[in-house]
What we know:
Layout: H1 4-12, E1 17-23, H2 28-31, H3 34-43, E2 46-52, H4 57-60, H5 77-96, H6 111-121, H7 126-139, H8 150-159, H9 167-171, H10 176-190, E3 198-203, E4 208-213, H11 218-227
Parallel strand pairs: 1-2
Antiparallel strand pairs: 1-3, 3-4
Helix pairs in contact: 6-7, 6-8, 6-10
Amino acid sequence: MAERPDWDRLLSQKADETLDVYLDLKSPHAYLAVRPSLEVARDFRVAINFLPYTLSYETLGVSKTVGAEMKREPASPAADRKARMYYAAAREYAALQSLPFKSPYRLLDSSLAHKAFLFAKQQTLEVPFAMWVYLQGWASGWQEFELESAEQLRTACENVGADTNGFDAFVQPGGEGEDALAQIKVRAEASGISGAPHYVYTDHSKARRVGLFGREHLALIRGKYAAAGLARRIDVVPEFSHAWPGND
């Protein structure tokens, strides 16, 4: 969170294009993508538009069902290995970025948290909110932060400086947050989303918007922006490591 002034500066810069970045607050790989994605704004005249998308554990293959106890139930031994590797890989990359990470003790429902994310976004506080929640959650394997708690999500908003008047009405069932989240879902799925992080950018060589799943595509996206002449400085290079260790 000590990087917050830098995040604020990066998000407030003038830009010629927008990169949509879809996150899920229960996704470890979306957690790892926030800071590297912001590096695009540092190097290119591109605004980063972070948006929430609620992934399905069943679709991802992490669990065949999501029951009342929110325990992981893999469909097969192969699916179990896939799920374990999903978290093992995140653990290694979190260490590179010096971010805390413990695997979750149960499955998580991020739908309410995504409404809170949109509430914070109305006040341009979505990045501090997301990182505060991520850091609280992944540091303890979500033992010490309840992603499904409106009270704790309101506290998260307060801790990053949001005015929480109207929070309860915004996140309640049928409220403004639910409508906004539904509209974002339609946009995300129209772009081909299959996981988080999911990037949607303008490819000028094809004259259309393109969606890609995964942080490993940042180098490709940066290359597209470099080819379009969007670099902020003459020394900007498009190359970007998937093993980015964070800024010194």
